[in-house]
Structures are given as structure tokens and as C-alpha cells.
Amino acid sequence: MTADATHDRDPELPGRLLTTERDALIPLLRSRPDTDFALPTRACPGWSVRDVLAHCSSALMRVVEGRFEKGVFSPESNDRDIAERADWTNQQVVDELERGMTEAGPVIAGAGGVLDIVGLGEWVHAGDVREVWGVPGAYGGAGLPDALSLLARTTRERGHLPLHADLDDLDEPLRLGDTAGDRTPARFIGDAATLVRLYSGRPVEGRTYELAGAEAKELNIFG
After folding, report:
1. What are the residues facing 211 on neighbouring strands?
2. At what angle do helices 192-199 and 144-157 cross, to 10 degrees?
3. What is the tens place of the pLDDT at every residue in 45-104?
4. Does residue 139 surpass a pLDDT of 70?
5. 175, β-bridge pairs
6. Which of 153, 74, 61, 168 is nearest to 114 (CA)?
7. Over 60: is that where the pLDDT of 5 sits?
8. Dihedral (C-alpha) 69, 42, 195, 98: value to the nearest 10 degrees?
9. Which residues contact 98 (CB under 8 A, 6 or more apart)?
10. Rounded to an integer, what distance in angstroms lies between the CA atom of residue 180 and that of residue 17?
11. What is the value of pTM for the model shown?
């Protein structure tokens, strides 16, 4: 990925990220016993793995079906969506998630950018599940290049604080946030998965990185 990868919107990118993650995540989910779905998550306090997956599947189906009533995606709305699936089997939740990850891409592509962040959020939640289960590749894997491109463009369009990231995983630095502003860019040195954790408000204890010119809490785009 080049340093200027954020300048133009690729409408297919969020959908591509979702289908890439679908192909890796769904077989993993289908291979796990029901007890694994009941495990608590660190990233989403109060939610089990199943709750995270039910939130993801319901959010994607809202996109597919165009159901965006007032307050959608608020904590209260998310809790209601999870509760509505309380009587479902774990595999029914996985079935809905697979459908959503397959069908949401074209809808997101046609929405002009307003729904692009949904693709990134779903990908991050897949990392949440991997972390609980101790599966390698949390906040990484085949979708990482597209996730970083989407993260960079999202932070630029939102006028987020500027940051210059020297990533162990990339040959070229990545620029995030509003590079046209007056603020001197913050500096991050470390791996891409840790950068994603910081921007999504995930735990970074025990991870090695350097962050100068900003506090970790300033980077969270989902907070």
C-alpha cells in the first residue's frame, strides 16, 4: 500500500474486506464447539463471543435490508438485536453472518461511503473473536491491507488527528488523519495489528510499540 492510498474511494473495498474475512472466519466458526461461543470477550465487556457475532450478523442484515430506524447501531439498538436472536442456535447466527458478509458489499458500495465503516467494524470484531479463542491473526490476516486502506481513508475524511505510522508490516509509512491541518503529526512505530487495536479501542497491554505526539485514547474511532 502506498502512502497516498487514502485519496480515492474504492467502493468495492469494504465488500472485498468482508468476503475475504468471510472465507477465513466462517469455517473457523463452524469448527468450534458451542462452549466456545459462550466465552466472554475482552474487547466488548459484557458480551460473549456469541453476542459479538449476533451483533455483527444483525448489523450486516440491517445494511442488506436497508433497516436504519432512529437510534440504529446505538448500544440500546445493538442489545435489542442480540436479544432478538437469543433463541437461535449458534449455527443459525453463523448462517446469518455468512449471508450478511456475502450480500452487504454491493449495498455498501452503492451508499457513497457512509456505510464503509461497517466493513471495517465487522473485520475488527472478527479479530475480537480470534483473540478470545487464541487463534493467530487477530486484527491481521489476508484482509489487513484493505483494512488499513479503509482505516486511513476513514480517519482522513473524519478530520482525525494526523498520524505518521512506520509499520513493521509495510515497506512504506502510512499516513492517517487530517494531514492538511496545522497539528504536527503524531508518530507510531510498531506492527499493524497494534495500530488497528489502538484505532478501534482494543487492549494493547503487553504489545510493543511507540506512540509520540498523541495519547492512545485520542486514536479510537469507535469510542
Report:
1. 188
2. 40
3. 999 999 999 999 999 999 999 998 888 889 999 999 999 999 999 999 999 999 999 999
4. yes
5. 164
6. 153
7. no
8. -50
9. 22, 26
10. 28
11. 0.94
The grid coordinates listed for 108 are 455498501
Compute the C-alpha angle 115/116/117, nearest 5°: 90
Helix locations, the chain, DSSP H? 13-30, 34-37, 49-65, 75-84, 90-109, 116-133, 144-157, 192-199, 216-219
Asked if 47 and 40 count as a contact pair (C-beta separation under 8 A), the reply is yes
**Residue 179: what pLDDT?**
76
Sign of CA dihedral 162, 166, 170, 173: positive
Q: Residue 128: which of 70, 60, 52 has the closest Cα?
A: 52
The three-class DSSP label of residue 143 is coil
